[in-house]
């Protein structure tokens, strides 16, 4: 049967088609889902993004009177004048609220100083009643030569309109999908691997978790069953620094003293504001100026914090790492926005230098990624690497002086400096002052010395520790515990002031912490520094373990059987002397086991054990030093250190004291310049 071909019209193109559905981009962002601090930060970012704005900052801190304004901005066209912004993150804002907000501004001091006031509200102000109220207030302010601006959350409001051209800010506060919906697919694709707000939050939260665990392991503080090891920020008081300044003769300003601080000398004054520097020496007086360390850091980029052993260098850097990673950062540690918007990356300089010795091509980013992997946080390695390409950092480097090899120290520091420059990072380091001058630190990096504790800080430190380590009722807030502990903190300060020597000891944070524990347990406060170190060792090896055993009804570990009270300290003295002789603060674990085994094999000093048994026992004892006594800390696989460098130096000094004087001098020549804090004790 012959087939009939299909009609020709079937091959013709389709006729008129209906237009595709119109998909309009979202015109409004969910400002109602932001917290009020985030809404305030959002406004700050939007204001700062204006090319005509020279400077923008928050006005005041939580709890301070702000006179109806939240932000201040200076414009390039009129830098001497300020523009004020008031932020209201509310769901409903009435005409009465509008009048009250503007009236509060008018009654404050800024109403006579500015020409521009902008009301920023998260909700919509488009209703006729609100529009009329705004027009009325605008006309009234105009009679005082003040322009009223309104940024509201309506679809056509200036806030949404401005954010249409600011996709990175939308990305930070609302996430990538909102950029795609609100700013467009093409714009979202251009952001590529940039971390959005959600990814940043994940990275910061995981880093905070890791930092808290590591910092508490490295710095356990006063060991007690009631202590919360995770709340590192509650343990210590904000530190002060001392910096030198020159002031022209006859023009020394009036210094403002912080309550509770004391003068430290005739030419030493505590104050808040920085004294202008001068290069003239013939017409200038030099002063040592004491100020809060956080305030000093706020005005710095790359810098070095100096301090003697036990003065809190590492604690300051750890606090900084946690504060920068905490969304609602501690208000008593204020930093500028340049610091707060950056991701804190903390590294141990000694460990970095040691890694370079094993892996000559390792970089700062490789080292940090490997560190994340070693501690089980490899899930955020990819986020960190993405952040490297698109985000800004604060690199926190602990212990520039702790690298054992000079060449490695210089190479490691070169890599730190170049990392900071290539990634536009702020670099904040710590070091002891003795070796700082020999380090190749860029001369443009300023430095300042950590100040000893004053009486107010001693009371606050004691109060915090008493509140942390002593028992509390279920659900009792830290504020209530601090209030209850305050009289005990004051009593501790009165007790140490009975003796000028003990008072001076307490000005070093590490020794103060030990004295706090001695006072809490027995109300005995040693007066000599050497005796204080001895008491600290005794706390680690005897009193704390005995108290824990008594509280938990447990027997001493079997590995301690047969050991005399002095044996553990003698073993530690050997380890400390061996490590100090190598000019290092890192003790190789296998070497520690070997030294311990040699002691146990000694017929006179030790137990006279045969070699196989001594090695097994030594392995158990070193493990106890780490996990039971806490006097040794495992820095990495195969590497140990003392809980603080000053303990190593004290124990090493005891070994040196047992040598004949010629041998002491030979040892000094062998290791080079001694640490200023290493007490050499002659045998009488």
Structure description:
It is built from 26 helices and 16 strands. With 684 residues, the chain is of the alpha/beta class. The strands form 3 sheets. An 8-stranded mixed sheet has the order 7-8-6-13-9-12-11-10, sandwiched between helices. The model is unreliable at 249-283 and 673-684 (pLDDT under 50). A hairpin with a 2-residue loop joins strand 15 and strand 16. Helix 17 packs across helix 20 and helix 22 (567-581) packs across helix 23. It has 4 domains: 31-192, Trna Endonuclease, Chain: A, domain 1, CATH 3.40.1350.10; 299-450, P-loop containing nucleotide triphosphate hydrolases (Rossmann fold); 462-527, no CATH class; 558-671.
List keywords for this structure.
684 residues, eight-stranded mixed beta sheet, Trna Endonuclease, Chain: A, domain 1, alpha/beta, single chain, five-stranded mixed beta sheet, disordered C terminus, 4 domains, 16 strands, 26 helices, Rossmann fold
């Amino acid at each position: 049967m012959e087939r009939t071909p299909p009609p020709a019209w079937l091959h013709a193109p389709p006729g008129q088609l209906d237009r595709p559905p119109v998909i309009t981009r979202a015109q409004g962002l969910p400002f109602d889902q932001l917290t009020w601090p985030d809404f305030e930060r959002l406004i700050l970012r939007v204001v700062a993004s204006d090319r005509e704005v020279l400077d923008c900052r928050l006005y005041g801190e939580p709890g301070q009177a702000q006179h109806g304004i939240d932000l201040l901005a200076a414009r390039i066209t009129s830098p001497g004048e300020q523009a004020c912004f008031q932020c209201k993150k509310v769901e409903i804002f009435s005409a009465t609220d509008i009048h009250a907000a503007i009236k509060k501004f008018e009654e404050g001091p800024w109403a006579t100083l500015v020409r521009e006031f902008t009301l920023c509200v998260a909700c919509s102000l488009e209703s006729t009643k609100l529009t009329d109220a705004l027009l009325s207030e605008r006309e009234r302010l105009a009679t005082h030569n003040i322009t009223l601006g309104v940024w509201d959350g309506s679809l056509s409001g200036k806030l949404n309109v401005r954010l249409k051209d600011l996709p990175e800010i939308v990305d930070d506060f609302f996430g990538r999908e909102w950029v795609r919906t609100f700013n467009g697919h093409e714009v979202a694709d251009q952001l590529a691997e940039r971390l959005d707000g959600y990814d940043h939050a994940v990275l910061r939260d995981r880093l905070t978790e890791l930092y808290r665990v590591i910092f508490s392991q490295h710095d356990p503080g006063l060991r007690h069953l009631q202590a919360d090891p995770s709340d590192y920020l509650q343990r210590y008081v904000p530190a002060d620094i001392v910096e030198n300044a020159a002031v022209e003769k006859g023009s020394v300003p009036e210094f403002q003293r912080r309550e509770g601080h004391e003068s430290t000398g005739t030419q030493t004054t505590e104050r808040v504001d920085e004294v202008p520097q001068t290069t003239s020496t013939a017409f200038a007086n030099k002063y040592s100026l004491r100020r809060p360390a956080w305030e000093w850091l706020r005005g710095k980029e790359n810098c070095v914090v100096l301090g003697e052993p036990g003065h809190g260098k590492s604690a300051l850097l750890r606090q900084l790492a946690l504060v920068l990673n905490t969304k609602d950062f501690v208000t008593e540690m204020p930093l500028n926005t340049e610091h707060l918007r950056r991701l804190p990356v903390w590294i141990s300089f000694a460990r970095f230098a040691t890694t370079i010795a094993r892996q000559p091509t390792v970089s700062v980013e490789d080292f940090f990624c490997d560190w994340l992997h070693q501690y089980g946080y490899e899930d955020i390695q990819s986020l960190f690497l993405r952040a490297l390409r698109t985000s800004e950092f604060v690199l926190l480097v602990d212990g520039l002086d702790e690298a054992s090899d000079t060449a490695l120290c210089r190479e490691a520091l070169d890599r730190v400096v170049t990392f900071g420059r290539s990634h536009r990072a702020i670099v904040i380091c710590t070091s002891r002052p003795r070796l700082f001058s020999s380090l190749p630190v860029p001369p443009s990096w300023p430095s300042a010395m950590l100040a000893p504790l004053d009486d107010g800080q001693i009371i606050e430190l004691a109060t915090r520790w008493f509140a942390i380590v002593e028992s509390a009722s279920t659900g009792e807030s830290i504020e209530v515990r601090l209030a209850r502990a305050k009289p005990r903190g004051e009593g501790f300060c009165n007790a140490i002031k009975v003796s000028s020597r003990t008072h001076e000891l307490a000005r070093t944070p590490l020794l103060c912490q030990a004295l706090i524990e001695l006072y809490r347990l027995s109300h005995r406060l040693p007066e000599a520094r050497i005796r204080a170190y001895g008491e600290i060792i005794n706390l680690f090896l005897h009193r704390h373990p005995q108290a824990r055993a008594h509280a938990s009804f447990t027997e001493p570990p079997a590995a301690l059987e047969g050991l005399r009270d002095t044996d553990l300290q003698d073993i530690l003295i050997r380890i400390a002397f061996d490590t100090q002789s190598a000019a290092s603060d890192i003790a190789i674990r296998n070497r520690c086991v070997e030294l311990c085994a040699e002691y146990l094999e000694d017929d006179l000093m030790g137990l006279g054990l045969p070699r196989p048994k001594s090695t097994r026992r030594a392995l158990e004892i070193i493990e106890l030093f780490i996990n039971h006594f806490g006097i040794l800390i495992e820095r990495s696989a195969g590497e140990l250190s003392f809980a603080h460098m000053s303990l190593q130096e004290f124990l090493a000094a005891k070994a040196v004291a047992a040598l004949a004087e010629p041998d002491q001098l030979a040892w000094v020549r062998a290791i080079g310049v001694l640490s200023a804090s290493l007490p050499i004790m002659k045998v009488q």
